[in-house]
Amino acid sequence: MSKVSYYTAEGLKKLRDELNQLKDVERPKASQAIAEARDKGDLSENAEYDAAKEAQGMLEMRISKLEETVANARLIDESQLDMSKVLVHSNVKIKNTANGMEMKYKLVAQSEADLKSGKISVDSPIGKGLLGKEVGEIAEIEVPNGKIFFEILEISRD
After folding, report:
1. In the prediction, which pLDDT does 1 show?
2. What is the rounded distance in angstroms from the CA atom of residue 86 to the CA atom of residue 134?
3. Based on CB atoms within 10 Å of each CB, which residue in 13, 52, 103, 154 is the most buried?
């Protein structure tokens, strides 16, 4: 059974654009590479043909996975989110209780996660630990070397 994921309009557009790129540009390129390799002679000893067929198989697998993701994607209306607790697409400001360091993250679907831009997956240990918490609560997060405690300082949409 497929897993439903929640996306912003921007995240869903990015997925659809990638899917269209793979179908409209990469798939014809793969077919062309196979045709060119086939024209070079004996297929039983043609490594170029084998490589092109394998690349096409990987491309088709990626297209299939993306189609499934897009089919199970749900668009989130961020204006309707409850800002009293941390949810998917919440911006949350947290403070590490051990060292006082403050961080700000946006919780997103796994495929939208990008730590450089401050987007963490709701499926990550920190994301799971923050979900459902309210301002002032302490989130206890299990990490490989023990536990980290984060205080929820602020929850917002943007």
Report:
1. 46
2. 6
3. 52
Which tokens is 17 given? 């654009």
Q: What's the chain's average pLDDT?
A: 86
* Dihedral sign from CA coordinates of 84, 87, 88, 91: positive
* 128-138 pLDDT, tens digit each: 999 889 999 99
Element (H, E) at 11: helix 9-21
Q: How far is CA 18 from CA 3, 6, 120, 151, in A?
A: 20, 17, 21, 37
Question: From residue 58, how far is each of 61, 85, 140 by CA, in Å?
Answer: 5, 41, 40
- CA-nearest of 146, 68, 155, 142 to 105 is 155
Cβ-based burial of 100 (10 A; exposed 0-12, middle 13-18, buried ≥19): exposed
Give whole-number Cα distances, 79 to 2, 44, 156, in Å: 27, 59, 11
